[in-house]
Amino acid sequence: MGLRLVRSGTHKDARPSLATEADVRLAYDAHGGELYRFAVRATGDDGASQDIVQEIFLRAWRSADRFDPELASLRVWLFAIARNVVVDHHRAIGARPWLRGLTDQPDDAGPPVADHSEHLVHEWVVEAALERLGEEQRQALTETYLRDRPYAEVAAELGIPVGTLRSRVFYGLKALRVVMDEMEVTL
């Protein structure tokens, strides 16, 4: 990836850092293009997308102390920031409709192509959050919510009462919310 690795005193693993300007440059080299493509698909505007990528890395650098590689990878964390910046961009356009016409795109450009990247970012974030749950809660949420299977069927397969499965789902969702708050992600 090219990111500078620093050794933490409590961890044996090396982890990426955004502590210095050079670290941010390395992170930009590793992820900037992908974030730019995400922004272009989300906005349909090259100029706004360049501003969005700049804002992503500015926010990442300013909040570098909150990045925890044990919660999510640098890539997932940057895409979570990207999603928030894109949402902020769309809110700004909504609040200032006269900005809609200020794009780098020709007037005859059609609407932006359908974007599936935000869905992918959500999947990565949810997957990273689920990894932090206990096996029973993770399994209950995966089978009932993500795979949309009936409670009775999942409970029978696991050999547990439906009430137990419902409890695992309930407490799993609560734990998932806490994990997502710790990751500073809103979906």
- Put simply, the count of helices is 7
* CATH homologous superfamily title of the largest domain: RNA polymerase sigma factor, region 2, helix turn helix motif
- Kindly give the count of domains: 2
CATH architecture of the largest domain: Orthogonal Bundle
N-to-C CA distance = 27 Å
Q: Give the C-alpha Rg.
A: 20 Å
Give the overall shape. Answer: elongated
Strand content: under 5%
In the sheet with the most strands, the strands line up as: 1-2
Helical content band: 55-70%
What is the multimeric organization of the chains shown?
Answer: single chain
Order of helices and strands: EEHHHHHHH
Structure description:
The protein is mainly alpha-helical and 187 residues long. It folds into two domains: 115 residues, Rna Polymerase Sigma Factor, Chain: A (Orthogonal Bundle); 56 residues, Winged helix-like DNA-binding domain superfamily/Winged helix DNA-binding domain (Arc Repressor Mutant, subunit A, Orthogonal Bundle). Helices cover 63% and strands 3% of the residues. It is built from seven helices and two strands; from the N terminus they run ββααααααα. Strands 1-2 form a two-stranded antiparallel sheet. Strand 1 and strand 2 form a beta hairpin. Helix 1 runs antiparallel to helix 2 and helix 1 crosses helix 3. The longest helix is centred in the first third of the chain and has 23 residues. The chain is elongated, with a radius of gyration of 20 Å. The two termini are 27 Å apart. The relative contact order is 0.11. The N terminus is likely disordered.
